[in-house]
């Protein structure tokens, strides 16, 4: 039994903001929380952090590392104040991050964008997880790996993502050699923020395994990297290599500077960094085999554990100890979910709908959901593909794009909205079928994240997949998961699994599938699958051709000051 008067703090760094939560170590009770929005948000059109206001090409997504430190300075002390506890009772702190989010730094951890000579250089900034401009470099990595029969490729569903460390690193080398040469460390943001907190730089086992092509104790070979580009041969030893910390390990202790930022006691344990999705499983006490946890927000990550190692086509990765020690952690994902709903609400809803939602005092999302819920399954006559931000699993192709088929002059906004909701559920079912057909059984869905509030959507997921759906009890799953890891790092529990049993909570079977609804959705899912394979597996590459045309048009117009459009995603969906 742990001391009922000790607490840990988890800090969750999301796409648009950072959230801190104070958690009691004995039972996981949340005493206080606070949130801080990043001042620069996501820079995907222009480099707003620079006075030069440099325009960015399509598929770029950058951030400012100082915004992350501001979260420590504001959200952490605010959470402690809200909790009403003595900071001296806090015994540990941990952080999680969106991934793969990369920071180029000097040897002492200074981000290159903070150096005056590089302030106007886009490649000196943080490349956010959804920076997809490295797709051509990912394609070369995949082509070469297949050609050489690299043994590590099946561990990643036979496709390396443009979002990950090596593709982004290769892009940096080949597009801005000066920045690449000035960079001493290519650092995951999860590890960078821990470095700022505890003064020690170690790479966490989660991001190393899932995003860093690290399997069976080794990285990609130097000969492979040299075949991509001779100057990339020593990328691992020159830019990446560092001691690897296991999840729940203490990586240093809170420095005097970080204690000043946070108001916490100097010297408390700082846990190894983690990925926001993977750290959520302990918060829901969902670390056993067959429990597929969906972290649903702007995107969805799908994570589960198994005792066995299998190759699953299109998975993001399988890592020994990637979630908890002693189990293989599997990850898949959908690049756009809440992002897609947000796009439609911001760009496709008539003013009359917005006015009616305002009159009733509800969000446009809630209003559209009410209207959509009244329809019979299939009543809108539509099927959509959820690829508006590319496809992460199972096709692993950011060059794919969204599609809605079946529209007529009678199609209404609520019809489209429901079809988009359904498309994301069908995408999850596609992922589930990839796992189960590969020998990784799934018996329960566990949902966390901002989209939990949409009860209609939750029931839809249960019906589409035919699986019972449990829900995490916390609204701050990643932050609570980080707090659990902080408790282990501080010695309150021997391991993450034990800590999760006391500090993690979920409502088991909150939604049960309706057999009639499942049968009705089966017919729509068959149509979704036909479109999925037709546009996604090479029979018709029109989506890729259109993206090529878009890039060519953008490049031709840059001299005229024209830039690609962007989307401001509502924070409620992140």
UniProtKB/TrEMBL annotation:
<dbReference type="InterPro" id="IPR005929">
    <property type="entry name" value="Ribulokinase"/>
</dbReference>
<feature type="region of interest" description="Disordered">
    <location>
        <begin position="554"/>
        <end position="574"/>
    </location>
</feature>
<dbReference type="GO" id="GO:0005737">
    <property type="term" value="C:cytoplasm"/>
</dbReference>
<keyword id="KW-0067">ATP-binding</keyword>
<dbReference type="InterPro" id="IPR000577">
    <property type="entry name" value="Carb_kinase_FGGY"/>
</dbReference>
<dbReference type="InterPro" id="IPR043129">
    <property type="entry name" value="ATPase_NBD"/>
</dbReference>
<comment type="pathway">
    <text>Carbohydrate degradation; L-arabinose degradation via L-ribulose; D-xylulose 5-phosphate from L-arabinose (bacterial route): step 2/3.</text>
</comment>
<protein>
    <recommendedName>
        <fullName>Ribulokinase</fullName>
        <ecNumber>2.7.1.16</ecNumber>
    </recommendedName>
</protein>
<keyword id="KW-0547">Nucleotide-binding</keyword>
<feature type="domain" description="Carbohydrate kinase FGGY C-terminal">
    <location>
        <begin position="293"/>
        <end position="490"/>
    </location>
</feature>
<dbReference type="InterPro" id="IPR018485">
    <property type="entry name" value="FGGY_C"/>
</dbReference>
<keyword id="KW-0418">Kinase</keyword>
<dbReference type="GO" id="GO:0019150">
    <property type="term" value="F:D-ribulokinase activity"/>
</dbReference>
<dbReference type="GO" id="GO:0019569">
    <property type="term" value="P:L-arabinose catabolic process to D-xylulose 5-phosphate"/>
</dbReference>
<dbReference type="GO" id="GO:0008741">
    <property type="term" value="F:ribulokinase activity"/>
</dbReference>
<dbReference type="Pfam" id="PF02782">
    <property type="entry name" value="FGGY_C"/>
</dbReference>
<keyword id="KW-0054">Arabinose catabolism</keyword>
<dbReference type="GO" id="GO:0005524">
    <property type="term" value="F:ATP binding"/>
</dbReference>
<keyword id="KW-0119">Carbohydrate metabolism</keyword>
<keyword id="KW-0808">Transferase</keyword>
<comment type="similarity">
    <text>Belongs to the ribulokinase family.</text>
</comment>
């Amino acid at each position: 039994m742990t001391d009922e008067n000790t607490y840990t703090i988890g800090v969750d760094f999301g796409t648009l903001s950072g959230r801190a939560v104070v958690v009691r170590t004995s039972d996981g009770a949340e005493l206080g929380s606070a949130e801080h929005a990043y001042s620069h948000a996501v820079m995907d059109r222009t480099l707003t952090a620079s006075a030069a206001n440099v325009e960015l090409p399509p598929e770029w997504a950058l951030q400012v590392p100082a915004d992350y430190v501001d979260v420590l300075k504001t959200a952490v002390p605010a959470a402690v104040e809200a909790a009403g506890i003595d900071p001296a009772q806090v015994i540990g702190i941990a952080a999680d991050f969106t991934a793969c989010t990369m920071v180029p730094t000097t040897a002492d951890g200074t981000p290159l964008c903070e150096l005056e000579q590089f302030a106007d250089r886009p490649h000196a900034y943080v490349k956010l997880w959804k920076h997809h401009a490295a797709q051509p470099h990912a394609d070369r990595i995949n082509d070469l790996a297949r050609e050489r029969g690299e043994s590590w490729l099946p561990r990643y569903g036979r496709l390396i993502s443009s979002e990950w460390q090596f593709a982004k690193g290769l892009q940096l080398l080949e597009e801005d050699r000066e920045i690449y040469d000035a960079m001493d460390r290519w650092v995951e943001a999860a590890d960078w923020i821990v470095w700022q907190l505890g003064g020690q730089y170690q790479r966490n086992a989660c991001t190393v395994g899932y995003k860093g092509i690290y399997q069976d104790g080794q990285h990609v070979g130097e000969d492979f990297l040299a075949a991509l580009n001779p100057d990339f041969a020593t990328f691992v030893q020159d830019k990446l290599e560092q001691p690897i910390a296991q999840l729940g390990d203490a990586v240093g202790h809170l420095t005097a500077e970080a204690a000043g930022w946070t108001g916490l006691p100097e010297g408390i344990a700082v846990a190894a960094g983690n990925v926001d999705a993977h750290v959520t499983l302990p918060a829901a006490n969902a670390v056993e085999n067959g429990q597929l946890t969906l972290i649903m927000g702007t995107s969805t990550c799908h994570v589960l554990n198994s005792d066995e190692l299998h190759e699953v086509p299109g998975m993001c990765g399988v890592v020994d100890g990637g979630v908890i020690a002693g189990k293989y952690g599997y990850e898949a994902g959908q690049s756009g979910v809440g992002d897609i709903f947000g796009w439609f609400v911001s760009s496709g809803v008539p003013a009359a709908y917005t006015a009616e939602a305002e009159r009733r005092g509800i969000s446009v999302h809630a209003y559209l959901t009410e209207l959509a819920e009244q329809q019979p399954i299939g009543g809108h006559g539509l099927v959509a593909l959820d690829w508006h931000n590319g496809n992460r699993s199972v096709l692993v192709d950011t060059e794919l794009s969204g599609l809605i088929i079946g529209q007529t002059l009678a199609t209404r906004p609520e019809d489209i909205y429901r079809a988009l909701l359904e498309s994301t559920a069908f995408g999850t079912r596609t992922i589930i079928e990839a796992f189960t057909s590969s020998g990784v059984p799934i018996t329960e869905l566990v949902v966390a994240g901002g989209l939990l509030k949409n009860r209609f959507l939750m029931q839809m997921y249960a019906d589409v997949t035919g699986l019972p759906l449990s829900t995490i009890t916390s609204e701050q799953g990643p932050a609570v998961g980080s707090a659990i890891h902080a408790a282990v790092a501080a010695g309150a529990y021997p391991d993450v699994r034990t800590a999760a049993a006391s500090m993690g909570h979920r409502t088991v079977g909150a939604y049960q599938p309706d057999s009639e609804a499942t049968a009705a959705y089966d017919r729509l899912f068959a149509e979704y699958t036909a479109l999925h394979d037709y546009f996604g597996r090479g029979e018709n590459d029109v989506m890729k051709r259109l993206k090529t045309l878009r890039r060519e048009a953008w490049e031709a117009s840059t001299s005229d000051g024209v830039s690609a459009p962007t989307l401001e995603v509502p924070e409620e969906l992140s």
